[in-house]
Design goal:
Elements lengths: L11 E10 L2 E11 L4 E6 L5 H8 L7 E6 L2 E2 L5 H8 L2 E4 L11 H12 L4 H14 L15 H12 L6 E5 L7 H18 L2 E5 L3 H7 L2 E6 L4 E6 L1 H7 L3 H8 L6 H5 L1
Parallel strand pairs: 3-8, 3-9, 6-7, 7-8
Antiparallel strand pairs: 1-2, 1-4, 4-5, 9-10
Helix pairs in contact: 3-4, 3-5, 4-5, 5-6, 6-7, 8-9
């Protein structure tokens, strides 16, 4: 399988990527890298393809052109067995959290461990307690998703994504639907995980507070030009990006809606 020529390739490389639904091209010519330990934000306005890009990164959609590499190894061109091996290194929190409502938090987090690991029942129980503690939910394992707040449910979904000790954590609109306080607590959890575990974290979001709190690096997807308009640290892009769209997006007040910014 093709490898990068450098000895230490980026953790993730998106190269010449185009995304399409049939003949409709959503984004073209995406090129960026994500380094080990980055907190990387995929941002942009409504309909720009942020979540679609994440689906490409985990193999739920195939690119019209280009490829995605993990540590220099092509995920796009990999065989099914090789893809499965790469995917085992990723933890994903889908938009909305997607917890099983009929299971307790403990049972939700234990499920991937029971399915994909060889741990004993006692080991799984210990791992589940640890993951819940990592996201500030120690003692809540016996609760059902309906018995906790939306912010707590999102953090539980993050704990489940961490169950199999991933190298990369991918979060799709984690703060969507949360009040400002719960959103802030979730952002703080993401920062704590980054500092504690040293993992690479990729977040899809358009929330300004989250972008500036979380991101060390980012890419902006522009729905109008159908390609990336900027790559870099969000603070630097807010102040110095060549694109007016990017600067306006990152300079909007909390009262602005996403539609107002991107119209």
């Amino acid at each position: 399988m093709e490898k990068e020529s450098t000895s230490t390739p980026p953790h993730i490389t998106v190269k010449d990527l185009s995304m399409a639904y049939g003949d409709f091209v959503l984004m073209r010519d995406l090129n960026f890298t994500i380094s080990h330990g980055d907190r990387f934000v995929i941002m942009g306005g409504s309909g720009s393809g942020k979540s679609t890009l994440m689906r490409h990164m985990i193999g739920l959609m195939e690119p019209a052109r280009g490829e995605i590499r993990y540590e220099g190894e092509s995920f796009t061109k990999a065989s099914p067995a090789e893809r499965h091996r790469i995917l085992r290194r990723l933890g994903v929190m889908y938009q909305g959290g997607a917890l099983w409502s009929s299971m307790t938090l403990e049972e939700n987090i234990a499920l991937p461990l029971e399915k994909y690991s060889s741990h004993t029942e006692g080991q799984i129980a210990s791992i589940v307690r640890y993951k819940l503690a990592l996201v500030g939910l120690a003692g809540f394992g016996g609760y059902y998703p309906s018995e906790i707040s939306g912010g707590m449910a999102k953090r539980a979904a993050v704990a489940r994504a961490l169950a199999l000790e991933p190298e990369v954590l991918l979060l799709d609109e984690p703060s969507s639907g949360l009040d400002p306080l719960s959103s802030r607590r979730l952002d703080e959890t993401i920062l704590e995980l980054s500092e504690t575990l040293g993992m690479t974290i990729v977040v899809v979001t358009h929330d300004l507070d989250s972008i500036f709190t979380i991101a060390t690096h980012s890419v902006f997807l522009d729905a109008n030009s159908k390609t990336q308009a900027a790559v870099g640290n969000p603070v630097d892009l807010r102040d110095h990006a060549r694109s007016d769209t990017v600067r306006r997006f990152l300079s909007r007040t909390l009262q602005n809606t996403e539609e107002e910014v991107t119209s």
